[in-house]
Amino acid sequence: MEDLRSPVVDAHIHYLPRSLLQTLLKRTRAPRAERSGTMLVLDFGDGYVERVSESCSDPGHLFEALELAGIDIAILSINQPGVLYMPSDEAGAIARDANDELLALVQGSNGRLEGLATLPWQVPELAIAELERTASLGLRGAMACSNVAGQSLDALHFDPVFEAAERLRMPMLLHPSLPLGVQTLGPYGLTCAAGFLMDTTTAVLRVILGGTFDRHPGLKLILAHSGSLLPQIAGRLDLEYDRGTVMRSLAEGRHPTDYVGMLYTDTVAGSPSALRAALGLFSHDRVMLGSDYPFWDHELALRIVRQADLGEDLTSRITGLNAIELFALNPRQRAGGPAR
């Protein structure tokens, strides 16, 4: 009998390709990696360090984790910051190797996996070429970090990359990277807990106020972590815009939060109340399940959605249907597991 249950899709889950891991292991300055037993110590710089199991580069372990959690489809993004701190003359080749490894993993998964490309944003023409290449080969979107090694995304030389994403209909996951104000966060270990949300919020506001969505209304941008801080500051933001303290004018008398309807987000919220706050701001057809695996886990992700008590129809949309629509997935192609 055909399974009529809506597929469960994890739209925010990370994978560290072995080719990129090898590059990080060879580096002597951040971002870099070193092994400590079965763990990887990922040094992102300015005191921000993560310890994760080396299994984050093991496809077998990934499939086991998905099966255990009941995740039917995972949309993999390559760990931040990707290649953004690599030398400009090397970044393109490193990104290509990482994306080719991700493509092979996706193509051998019988529909269980999809992928988002990592791009060498520091050389926009290379980023566009890699976006076009990976789109033609079957990846579903790309990563856009909250800053490009210290450069803001609203810089005009990045605009052609957004134009290409719009033209190719490739959604972009706006994910935190090492925050621009990291020096004030490191001493108390607040880089991930608070700094990431500050940086993505600043990044998306600069993109909005810089006119990116006015120039590219078809751009599909996923603001990671349940809308970052937008659910908390939306009202204040519009009030300050009306008061004249926001030093940019938007088209046609619009307010900053008018652009929220163009954004997507995930359920990586940390609590049911934070998820409900995001759903109070974002359109319900633009919120997708996310686990942030391997840094958080699937059990927590699904528990947050269940405890938010959203009702069957909305829960079904969030845990699968919204991602299927955004990424144009065909879950009927899934054959039940990785190819052997």
Can you tell me about this structure?
The longest helix is centred in the first third of the chain and has 20 residues, at 88-107. This protein has a single domain (9-16, 69-331), classed as Alpha-Beta Barrel (TIM Barrel), CATH 3.20.20. It has helices at 18-26, 59-69, 88-107, 124-137, 159-168, 191-209, 212-215, 224-227, 230-243, 272-281, 298-307, 312-326, and strands spanning 9-15, 32-36, 39-45, 48-53, 73-78, 113-117, 141-145, 147-148, 151-152, 172-175, 221-223, 263-266, 287-288. The protein is an alpha/beta fold and 340 residues long. It contains twelve helices and 13 strands. Helices cover 41% and strands 17% of the residues.
CATH class: Alpha Beta
Total number of β-strand segments? 13
Question: What share of the residues does DSSP label as strand, in percent?
Answer: 15-25%
Could you state the order of secondary-structure elements as H and E? EHEEEHEHEHEEEHEHHEHHEHEHH
Number of helices: 12
Question: How does the helix and strand content classify structurally?
Answer: alpha/beta
Radius of gyration: 19 Å
Kindly report the CATH topology.
TIM Barrel
The CATH superfamily is: Metal-dependent hydrolases
Integer tally of domains: 1
Mean pLDDT score: 93
